Amino acid sequence: MSWLHTWTGLVCGWLVFAIFATGTASVFKPEIGAWTRPVLAAQPDPDAGLQRAADAIRREHPDAVSFTVAPPDGRARDMESYWSDAKGVFGQAWRDPATGAAVAGPATSGGELFYRFHFELMAPYPYGRLAACLAAAFFVSAIVSGVITHKRIFADFFTFRPAKGGQRAWLDGHNLLGVLALPFHLFIALTGVVTLITTFMPFGPVGAYGKDMAAFYADAEPATAHLPAATGRPAPLAPVAPLAAAARASLHGDILRLTVDKPGDASARVIFFRDNSGAVSKSTQAAVFDGATGALLSAPPPPGPAMATYEFLYGLHMAAFAGPALRWLYFLGGLSGCGLIATGLVLWTVARRRKLARPHFGFRLVEVLNAGVVMGMAMAVAGFFWACRLLPAGLADRPGAERHVFLATLAAAILYSALRPQRRAWAELASAAAVLFAGAPLVSALSGGRSLWRSAATGDLAMASVDLTLLALGAGFAFIAARAARS
Amino acid sequence: MGWLGFVIAPLCFAGFAAMAMSMDRHHRDAAGGPCPAPLRRRLRRLAWSFLATAAAIALIGRSVGIVAGVLSASMAAAAVAGLLGVRPRVLARLLAIPVRRGP
Question: Do A329 and B68 count as a contact with CB atoms less than 8 A apart?
């Protein structure tokens, strides 16, 4: 079992670390989105925003046969929107609730970069998603075999002796995080696989539906299935803002997104999906309106037990239900996962270094990747915040350039780690991560983004807390750098 | 029910702090000697009543409360362990346990 733990942990360690680091950042995806688009107001009116976005999409894309808009809420200030035409060509834009048009200012990936990387690893579909699922499966086997290997679970429950130094201290830290945060690590890894289940294990739906996957999706999401065919008779679309208010009353909750099917046709449908605050499960409730008359139609049927299970596990992973306290607990849980993997990777080398007269290539490779990936991911995450503010506004495909900066930072850290003695590499890369994290709020203030003091003065809590979290992470990495330099 | 985390986390912290103080090894670090048997019994009772209260509040919050409870318990236990590793005396002082003159 110890062998299994050692090797599954090593094989998936770097990948799972990268997934955990970006997943932890994604807990605050709407707040990061707000930070990256400082022109947006803090308290947009959601219904007026929906109306403006719907009008703008119909004006800009008169041939759209379906479009979807997510309203702003207490967290998100922008509106994600997408649309498709009769040929199935998709478009996507982030809209400003105040105008309905695409957000002004430099184009940015916003909170999407970390979120997409978390499960797609910037690899082509479906390979990135499959790799993320496999990494999660390896991670589950590593943490379960780790707990079995570590026999003194209750006797060592609170044991942490950093003063002892060396392998003992690393092992204490690793055991502590592994045992205490085990429930979180286990459920986050398993539910993570569930979010991609139709990619990773399509056998159930394929077995039940054969080639007719359209029937599968119709049963899985009844609200958008069985919509009436186009009549060809034009009819103006009813205003969506009053419908949104009616949908809130009918759903007894807030709106996650709005989908309009066949706008401008007599058969148009306006569908509001309920958000899932108050319960873990992603809600399947929807309010469907006749788009021409504005009449509320009968509610779509509730999903079957398999789908209800899926919605619960999906909701548990995405944490959209979480209030402020729980969101921070998810964030800390994510950091504990990063710590668990980083200490495990370090232990692999610490346990072997003494036994080796001359480090062979494999050992050296692990050493280089440990410092390079662990500190490189931290630098890449911090680097995104710099790129978001510093890349020229007129750059073609600016979000793509942000992705390149992210990957280049990671690659540079791995290269640097290969060129330096290990102890120095850890200390120097941690210093670089500290400077990048702590410097990001400063760069933001100096480059015409919003400064921390202005956010504090205007009571913009979300914006200020992103800056403060970046500063705290900077302090954390400075502490790690100081410890690494001393040891 | 998101606010439940604010209540559950401190309760879990108090419960795990009392639990750690009832263990000789940690009691020695924090208070300078082994834990006397009567104090150990009281600490154990205190620990379980704090943790049971936290669990009961978590159950009131149904699915969201249970998730908040599980995460709070993990983070509170980690905070107790971290404090024991760095400033063990603070834990004894928090629980008003008499500290013997250390070696």
Answer: yes
